Amino acid sequence: MAPNATIFKATLHIADMDRHYYEDHAVTLARHPSETDERMMVRLLAFALHAHEALAFGRGIGAEGEPALWQKDLTGSIDLWIEVGQPDERTIRQASGRARQVAVYAYGGRAADQWWNDIRSTLSRCRNLTVVNIPQDGSRALAQLAQRSMDLHCSIQEGQILMGDGTTAVQVDLATLHPATM
Predict the structure, then answer these.
(1) 3-state SS assignment for residue 117
(2) pLDDT per position as a tens digit, 35-61
(3) CB-based contacts of 13: which residues, under 8 Å, 6+ apart?
(4) Element (H or E) spanning 49, and its range?
(5) How far apart are alpha carbons 57 and 138 in whole angstroms?
(6) 45-68 burial string, b = 16+ CB within 10 Å, else e?
(7) How many CB atoms lie within 10 A of CB 20?
(8) By the 8 A CB rule, do 2 and 143 touch?
């Protein structure tokens, strides 16, 4: 964690009808000074989509060899490696070799589309890789929910996500660019 990180606390109530997962999580997010609310909230969304008692946030931006989130088994093997944004091809290939599953949540509109077009052909061999694009209007709307203390409800059903804080609700539709083939 960066020494000047801003700490955000969230109570996340997850109702994932697709996975039959219904739990509440108290999470602490350290937002690096160079991280935007949009990126932080995409990390929180990725947490909700893969919620598990062993899922944890990485040390943050600039932590070499660590993802945004990961899940390890009891032996220390990496079950799930999650990146947010537009990681470089080398990082994704290394993660694909280290983890059983890799998920990338890209956002940023046309920049994310261009990023994927540039690396798609070389990453198509990564059978354990899933790449998902979050439309720009969805990621920006999530950023509007960011507060130092959050109480958020996240409902997931048939691939549709609704996240809200009691007064504002945001619908996020994901577009899978590359599904895992394993």
Answers:
(1) helix
(2) 999 999 999 999 999 999 999 998 877
(3) 24, 151, 152, 153, 154
(4) helix 37-49
(5) 22
(6) bbbbbbbeeebebbbbbeeeeebb
(7) 7
(8) no
